[in-house]
Structures are given as structure tokens and as C-alpha cells.
Write a structure and sequence with these properties.
Blueprint lengths: L6 H13 L2 H8 L3 H15 L4 E4 L2 E4 L1 H24 L7 E7 L1 H18 L3 E7 L2 H9 L5 E4 L8 E15 L1 H10 L9 E3 L5 H12 L7 E3 L3 H9 L4 E5 L4 H6 L3 E2 L6 E10 L6 H18 L1
Parallel strand pairs: 3-4, 3-5, 7-8, 7-9
Antiparallel strand pairs: 1-2, 5-11, 6-9, 6-10, 6-11
Helix pairs in contact: 1-2, 1-3, 1-4, 2-3
């Protein structure tokens, strides 16, 4: 098989996988659409498997395509590493792919990104947001260089580098906080619980804390944005789970209050990377810069 495979086939496969459209994949690669179609057909002929389902609304990976995607990402990654090594780089360049939770990016990571991109303008940081499971899957599938997760996955195939602890709190409007103070925690049984979704590690931990306090979540709302959650709760619509640092301004102005619970929710965020991933010069530099930044941040 190896004597039939070409790098451009892998690039076409990844572009189609990420863009979900032959036309957009062609635009991204600077090809005409028929070229992308031909490359995918060649891959399917070489592998002897159908890699994509074609639908009127777009494309979707087959089971064979899901397996193939892991190797496609590894191939492109190794090609980039080889290019960097051959050029004997003295300055990082190329692309780093990293995935993190939106709340962590907005409250903790943004200053690092601003500093890093200023110091290393030749590096293209592709930062994505996702839940704990999304991030872990991206690392295991070799899709990402790095991930930042709120808890050590404790897997033999994942390296975990702790960077900082994060406290998560229940927040609500002043009106709901006052009701809870006067009538007790049970009033939350009748309030809407808002979080970033059941796939979020914060959410599952919070549900356990609420259950221990005698609160059963009957009505929950999933919102994709931290800012949306804060604005919704500040209107008196239920209570939410958020990083404490994310509501510092709202606490100062009184638009939000922290609801008192005996159980403290604290998570140890860390950088993760696949144990078998061969890090490029640029990736090693990025990892070092990030760990040093958070070491200074926490000092």
C-alpha cells in the first residue's frame, strides 16, 4: 500500500473531513473540486474501503474512514515535523492544534495566547473549544497536538502536565441568593439549573454536589457560551455552574452572587499529549512556553 499513497491524498482527506464539503475542501487546498474527488477515490481504491458517505447535505465518515483519519493526521503531523527538522529551525513555525474548554480559554489562557502569538508570529495556533471527552478523543485520535483538561485522565497512553487549580461555584442573581438565604437550599429544587452541558465534567460533578445537598435537578438548560450563561443567570433565570474567576466583575457589581455550599468544587487543569506522539520542534517549544507561563502565573 505504501508505494501507492501520496501526501496530497492525505491532505485532501483531512480537508474534506474538516470542511464537510468537497467544494470547501477544494477552496482550502487551492484545487478544483474534481481534484479532491479524484484524490478521495484514489484513497478508497488503495485502501479497498469506502471512506465517506456522500449525502445531499454533505459528507460523513464511514467506520473505515474513522480508522483511516487517525493515520491521516499522524502522517501530516510527521511530515510537518520532518520539514521542520530538515530546515534546521532556530525559530518555531508551523501549526499547533490545541483544544480546551471555552471557560478556561476565556478566563485563564487568553493572556498566554496573546503573549505567545506576539513572541512567535510564525506559529499558527489553531485553538478549538470542546468538553473534557471531546479533548480526550482528539488526543487519542492523533487529531490534536495538545489538549487542556480539568482533570487527569489517568490513562497509560496520555501524558498529563498539571498547570493550575480551578474553583467552580454555583452562581445566581441576588434575588435567588436572597431566597436561598431565607428559605434554605431546597428552593433550588424549583429553579432552572444552567451549565455548558452534560458532557462537561463540571456538570456531572455539580449534579453530585446538588444531590448530596438534597437537590434533584428537574429542569436543566445547556448553553454553549460562558457569556450567555452569565447573562441568562443575571436576569434571575435559575442558577449556574461557572469558574469563580469568570464572575469576578459580576460579584463586584452585585449582579451575581455565589451560592454557599459546603462541598468545594476544585479541579486541577493540565496539559495533555499522547504518549506516542513525536513532538516537533515547534510543539516542544510551545509546551515549554505554556508550562513556564502558568508556573509564573501561579507564583
Amino acid at each position: 500500500m505504501i508505494d501507492l499513497l501520496e501526501g496530497r491524498f492525505f491532505l485532501a482527506f483531512i480537508a474534506l473531513l474538516e470542511e464537510k464539503s468537497f467544494s470547501r475542501a477544494a477552496d482550502r487546498l487551492g484545487y478544483v473540486q474534481s481534484t479532491v474527488t479524484t484524490h478521495i477515490q484514489q484513497l478508497e481504491k488503495i485502501s479497498g474501503q469506502k471512506l465517506f458517505h456522500r449525502y445531499p447535505r454533505g459528507i460523513e465518515l464511514t467506520e473505515a474512514g474513522k480508522v483511516f483519519s487517525k493515520y491521516a493526521y499522524q502522517y501530516v503531523h510527521l511530515s510537518q515535523s520532518l520539514k521542520e527538522s530538515m530546515n534546521e529551525l532556530d525559530q518555531p513555525c508551523g501549526t499547533i492544534r490545541i483544544r480546551t474548554q471555552e471557560s478556561f480559554f476565556l478566563t485563564r489562557m487568553l493572556p498566554f495566547v496573546q503573549e505567545y502569538t506576539r513572541n512567535y508570529p510564525s506559529v499558527n495556533l489553531r485553538i478549538e473549544q470542546g468538553s473534557h471527552q471531546d479533548i480526550l478523543k482528539g488526543i487519542l485520535d492523533y487529531e490534536l497536538d495538545f489538549g487542556i483538561v480539568p482533570q487527569n485522565p489517568n490513562r497509560h497512553d496520555i501524558l498529563f502536565y498539571p498547570i493550575m487549580d480551578e474553583t467552580i461555584v454555583f452562581a445566581a442573581s441576588e434575588d435567588i441568593a436572597r431566597k436561598m438565604e431565607n428559605a434554605g437550599v431546597q428552593i433550588l429544587n424549583d429553579e432552572l439549573f444552567i451549565s455548558s452541558g452534560t458532557s462537561c465534567l463540571y456538570h456531572t460533578t455539580a449534579v453530585d454536589v446538588l444531590k448530596n445537598a438534597g437537590i434533584m435537578v428537574k429542569d436543566a438548560l445547556e448553553l454553549p457560551s460562558l457569556e450567555m450563561i452569565k447573562q441568562y443567570v443575571s436576569c434571575g433565570k435559575g442558577f449556574a455552574l461557572v469558574p469563580e474567576i469568570a464572575i469576578n466583575n459580576e460579584l463586584k457589581t452585585g449582579t451575581l452572587k455565589i451560592l454557599p455550599f459546603n462541598s468545594k468544587m476544585s479541579f486541577s487543569h493540565g496539559l495533555i499529549v499522547h504518549q506516542n506522539r513525536e513532538l516537533s520542534f515547534t510543539a516542544k517549544s510551545f509546551q515549554s512556553e505554556l508550562l513556564c507561563f502558568f508556573n509564573r502565573y501561579m507564583s
